[in-house]
Amino acid sequence: MAFTFKLNTRNPIFFTITNTSSYDPLLKNARRSGFLSFRFSASTTSSGSSAAEAFEEGELERPKWAGETPLSRLVGALISIKPLFSVLKLGARQVFISTAEKTNIPWREMTKEILDSDVYKELESIENPAIVYPDYYLNPFHAYDEGNLSWLAAAEVEAATMSMVRRAIPYASSLDEANQIVRGNWLDAIEKHHQQYSADFSIRDILDIGCSAGVSTGYIADKYPSAKVTGLDLSPYFLSVAQYKEKKRNQRKNPISWIHANGEDTGLPSESFDLVSIAYVFHECPERAIRNIVKESFRLLRPGGTIAITDNSPKSKILQELPPVLFTLMKSTEPFLDEYYLTDLERVMKDTGFANVQTVLTDPRHRTVTATVPY
After folding, report:
1. pLDDT tens, position by position, 149-202
2. For residues 169 and 204, what is the distance between their CA atoms, to the nearest angstrom?
3. What are phi and psi of 306, to 5 degrees?
4. 3-state secondary structure 183-227
5. How far from chain centre, in Å, is Cα 21?
6. CA-based diameter of the chain, in Å?
7. What is the spatial distance between Cα 110 and Cα 46, in angstroms, rounded to a whole number?
8. Contact (Cβ atoms closer than 8 angstroms) between residue 370 and residue 349
9. Mapping DSSP to helix (H, G, I), strand (E, B) and coil, where does residue 146 land?
10. 250 and 273 in contact (C-beta within 8 Å)?
11. In terms of pTM, does the model score above 0.70?
């Protein structure tokens, strides 16, 4: 079985994948379902959409393309075809880059700036040589064969995050406006929850689990400038970029600390934080890791402390209505997406012991789930 990939140079958000091999019944069925009409636009919402329309929930508990549905199994069967999987990864990567640059995010330029810098010097002070990586973390992620354990992934993650924000708010006139909605609503949800249920003590110590290259960590530190903020991640490459970029910015009153550790078993003292944030992490985790990280967060929080988890919303109308090829591409770069959508996160948090579990759609694609450790 062989495939060819062709990017539309006149409009790079379109591409075509062609099966050049002989008859294959699985691919024939996929064509009937519309899966191999691989010429598509990566934009799923028109620029004229209003905020009210974009925040609408879908009619389902989760997308039909996720979980154990026939549609999900068909997508999984397609992705399991190795030649097609390789082409899908290539297509996904090219779409990520071209759509970012189409919205004035200089992906290649930002990546080159990091790769040509002295960021590599940070690794020695960051990396914990005693780390044993869990098996799931060694899988390819986001079209990188090494997953998050590579300099290229670390160099590109900030541009990828910017692109994610622009996709979430396609009607925004600028990246700043999109961030005001995505990041602003997320931080507002944290603040409102903590004020409602834990207003009698301030947020002094914050842990950002799965902090990546420190983008979410920086927003939290800006929101709570008097707090001591720690970013924790399994990738020493991401943390090296986070530390390098943090050193280049204006000095904070309380500098961010970076820890190379596993969010499932951090080794940090119990009851040592007032806020634990987990941003855009769980869709990359199997269910067992999600449960372990929630349990570890409960141990780390002081009584009255707040946990805040933001990630893809299974009830997002936009995600439920993604075109077949777009969600096929997405699932080809996210190996644990089905497990994430099948996990009842609110139930996991309640079973762990959290109280006041609340979920709000904080942008068209993402939910923020907040909860409290009981006094």
Report:
1. 999 999 999 999 999 999 999 999 999 999 999 999 999 999 999 999 998 889
2. 32
3. -115, 135
4. HHHHHHHHHHHHHHHHCCCCCCEEEEECCCCCHHHHHHHHHCCCC
5. 35
6. 69
7. 27
8. no
9. coil
10. no
11. yes
